[in-house]
Amino acid sequence: MRIGRPAFQDFQRLLPRYRARSELNRQLHKLRWWNPVEPLVIDLQWNRVEPTGLAELFVQLDDGVVDTVRVLFFEYSPDPSVPTLWILGGMRADEALGSLQHAIYSGRSTIVQARAD
C-alpha cells in the first residue's frame, strides 16, 4: 500500500487534528487484506467507481469534525507479482463525487501509473 502526496494533503485539510489522521492511517492499513471480489475489507465497506476504474473505501472516525471519510484508491503495479494499492486522496463521505472529482482522481491515477513504470 502506498499513499500519494496529494492524499496526504487531502487528509491534512480534511482532518486538521493529528489524532483523527492517525486513526485514519490505522484504518487504511486494513487494505493489506483487500480482495477485489469481497465487498468488505475486514470491517470496512468499499465500492468500485465505475467510469474511472477506481475504488472508494468508507472509514468512520470518532472525530468531531468529520464522521465518515471516503478514501479513493486503485490497484496498479508495474510488476504483477507485487500487487500495490495506491491511495489517491480523500473527501467527506457526504460530499458528492461529481465529474470534477472524477477528473481529479483519474488524473492522479494517471500520474501514479506514469511515475511507477
TrEMBL record:
It comes from Novipirellula galeiformis. It comes from the Bacteria. This is Uncharacterized protein. The lineage of its organism: Bacteria, Pseudomonadati, Planctomycetota, Planctomycetia, Pirellulales.
